[in-house]
Every structure is written in C-alpha cells, then in structure tokens.
Amino acid sequence: MGYVKELEEQEQERKNKRIAGEDEGPAEEPESYRYPPAQILDARHAMMYSDRLTILKLRLAALKSKRCKGGPQNDVFCPEVFLDVVADKLAYTSTMFINIEFLDHFFYQFPREIDSRLIYDLDRNEIVQFARENPVIRRHLELQERKDKLEEVMKQLNSLSTLRPDSKPTPRRQRGLFGGVF
C-alpha cells in the first residue's frame, strides 16, 4: 500500500506541474521492479476502504460524544443524528410509495387484465362455465334463468289470453256502489 501511495503522490505532483505550466524534465525511468496492475488495483481499493473506515470511526466517535447525547436541541452541533432520522423517513416514504404502486397495480390492473383475458379469449359458454364455479354466482345465474323462463311463460299466457274471446262479456254499466242490495 505504501508503493501505491507513492505512485499517487507522484501522479499528483505531475498534475500540479502541468497545471502550473512547468515543463517536465526528462521522463523518469521506470523502476526495474514493478508490482502487477491487479495488485496495484487491490492496494488502491484497500486504501480507499481504510480511509472510509477511519472516517466512519470518527463519525461514530462524534455520535458517542456528550454533545450528541444532549438530545434534539443539539442538532446543529450533531447533524448526524438529524440526517439519520431524515434518511429513515425518506426510506419509509419510498417504501410506502413502492408498496402503494404495487397495490395499485394488483388491485386495479390485475383484475382488469384477468377480465380482458377471460372476455376476449373465451366464448359465451366458457364464460358462463367459469362463472358457475363460484357458488354464489351459480345460484344467481340459476335464479336469473328461472326468472327468464317464467317471463317467457307469462308472455305466452298473455298472448293466448288476447287471442281467445271471453266466454262471459263484461256488462257495460255497473250496477252502482251497492250493486244488487236494493
């Protein structure tokens, strides 16, 4: 890791010289012994992780300090706690939003998708057969069929009664309120 630090320092010096406009002297000769690029990359990752670890340790030490344990009135001195609460709230809100989107898709889109597949892919008899699988709907369909049959019979009886003349003609004038009493 020390070798990688030296490489990064040399690279930084070269960049600074280029920015300052200084001409670089003759290119330095590469060392006779060099590490493989994969090991250099691993060392850079290790340095990055160690830097992140030290930063996290410092932040944790700051959170454990007396200033941060003072409560919410010290949020100016200890923003980590406040930011943690904000992050939790954002995570909760985003989770709720995602859940609502899934529920909307399930409760709104899913039944309509099933309906469209049932209606457009099945013929009338298959739809009725599918509906009869539910006992409540089956009873309702049977009741509807009986009602339709009874209405058809009633129409037939009405048509027969209009075709047949009455055997007893109705009197033209009724006898009055008290009929045949007086």
TrEMBL record:
Domain GED positions: 72-165
InterPro entries: GED_dom, LIS_MGM1
Signal sequence segment: none
The protein, known as: GED domain-containing protein
Record lineage: Eukaryota, Fungi, Dikarya, Basidiomycota, Agaricomycotina
Native source organism of the sequence: Boletus reticuloceps
Region annotation (Disordered) ranges: 1-35
